[in-house]
């Protein structure tokens, strides 16, 4: 009889008024012209997919030669637009405040793999620390995708307790394809496989770690079929 009935938190809401923030990440989604190419970018960095998968680089060489930790600007917009392998090093089991700033004239939508986040606020114009006065910290909804109005901002809280390399991107396929994305690296020094399994022994290496294996040829057709 209670199926579908109202619940104390019908939208999956939670109280986050007592959390301690570890870091604030401010992300501007915008258009860019890079070497004559029309692109989308985050903080004026348009994502360029490397030949080596990020998880391989992270596991074997801590990203060396593929990406550089601390290089992506998380509080400012680069003066000049450029291509880059955008990786943000985040604190494992830390509460992070992410501000999505939409510098464009159309609606944007952001998605984070691997997590649900708490949508605590939104507004017009440029986000400032004073914007926190308008946050709803007592019953924010939990989502993995959130919208950002044109010329406005949306703020979310997320507790990063799931180790991995997680994609954060615009859900508009055009913007995603043209570079409006980055990765959040959540690293746990504990090698316990219950938290994150290591690569299998028969992993196929590629990029800087080996040549990709070509697919086998199709079998010859069997007579009598």
Automatic annotation (TrEMBL):
Keywords: Oxidoreductase. Gene3D superfamilies: Cupredoxins - blue copper proteins (2.60.40.420). Its EC number is 1.10.3.2. Residues 55-189 form the Plastocyanin-like domain. GO terms for molecular function: copper ion binding; hydroquinone:oxygen oxidoreductase activity. The keyword rRNA-binding does not apply. It holds the Pfam family Cu-oxidase_2. It is an enzyme of class 1 (oxidoreductase). Belongs to the multicopper oxidase family. This is Laccase. The lineage of its organism: Eukaryota, Viridiplantae, Streptophyta, Embryophyta, Tracheophyta.
